[in-house]
Design a protein that fits this description.
Helix 3 packs across helix 8, helix 3 packs antiparallel against helix 12 and helix 4 packs antiparallel against helix 11. With 257 residues, the protein is mainly α. Strand 1 and strand 2 form a beta hairpin. It has one domain. The chain has 13 helices and two strands; from the N terminus they run ββααααααααααααα. The structure holds zinc ion (2 copies). The site of one zinc ion has 9 residues, from helix 9 and helix 10.
């Protein structure tokens, strides 16, 4: 288990966000070479370092783009075996469930206080951007281009998470809210707290079952709803922008580009 890779004065590749030259360039989910390098180390074990877990907790994971990239990288590098994200989001959604489950006076403000982020995305804070060059070995950069395991996961689960996409993130009148937009609604006294509490309870329950399915003796017990809860959890915690873009694309091309 190594430490998080330092962002040693990342060399800008001059590659802009969304360029076809990015190693991972799907609608809504793009990663630069530097970000692939970071995530490669991240999923090898640095995600388990206590200080990293503390920072992931304070930020409710990573920002929208980096959390989608994390799931994509894990799915691609591990051929759809999403143990690391399942364990992380089991923890975060259990915390969310507790945060929204309390009954107190001025409950909306109290709930808002408990679901606020208290720290930044650690990848953004470390300086990783869509223009970060990096030190990822060529074979790692080649592997991230073979996106089919990630797209297969998205395709399989999409009917079970599309109704959870936050209307504010997507810019429509869908009633669902991600954490950050629920926070804003609650501060204004407009949050649909009961509905969102039920949504979070459902996500927490399914993602717990999904994480359990990786344990010895429970292999194969996960259902499509359990697997879909991972994307529901990532979207709820970090926002739905990348996933809404994938959803809008409708038919991501299979196989490596
Ligand atoms: Zn970030
Ligand atoms: Zn939102």
């Amino acid at each position: 288990m190594g430490p998080l890779p330092p962002n040693r004065s990342p060399v800008s590749t001059g590659v802009s966000h969304g360029s076809a030259l990015l190693p991972l360039d799907l609608p809504g989910v793009q990663l630069s070479a530097g970000e692939v390098y970071f995530l490669w180390h991240f999923i090898q074990g640095s995600i388990m370092i206590p200080d990293t877990r503390r920072r992931l907790r304070s930020a409710w994971g990573l920002c929208a783009r980096h959390s989608a990239g994390f799931v994509a990288a894990e799915a691609i590098f591990r051929h759809g075996y999403l143990h690391g994200p399942a364990v992380l989001y089991e923890d975060l959604m259990e915390r969310a469930h507790r945060a929204l489950g309390l009954r107190r006076p001025a409950v909306s403000l109290w709930a808002a206080w408990r679901i606020r982020a208290t720290g930044p995305c650690l990848m953004c804070q470390t300086g990783y951007t869509a223009a970060s060059g990096g030190y990822a070995p060529p074979d790692v950069l080649d592997r991230i281009r073979h996106v089919e395991p990630f797209l297969a996961f998205v395709r399989e689960t999409l009917p079970l998470w599309s109704r959870d996409v936050c209307g504010r993130c997507r810019g429509d009148d869908a009633p669902a809210r991600c954490r950050a937009h629920l926070f804003q609604d609650l501060l204004r006294g407009r949050g649909r707290l009961r509905e969102e509490r039920e949504r979070v309870a459902s996500i927490a329950e399914h993602v717990r079952r999904y994480a359990t399915s990786f344990r010895w003796g429970f292999h194969g017990t996960d259902t499509p709803a359990d697997r879909a809860s991972l994307i529901r959890a990532v979207g709820w915690c970090s926002g739905w922008g990348p996933w809404a873009a994938l959803l809008a694309d409708r038919s991501p091309a299979p196989g490596p580009r």
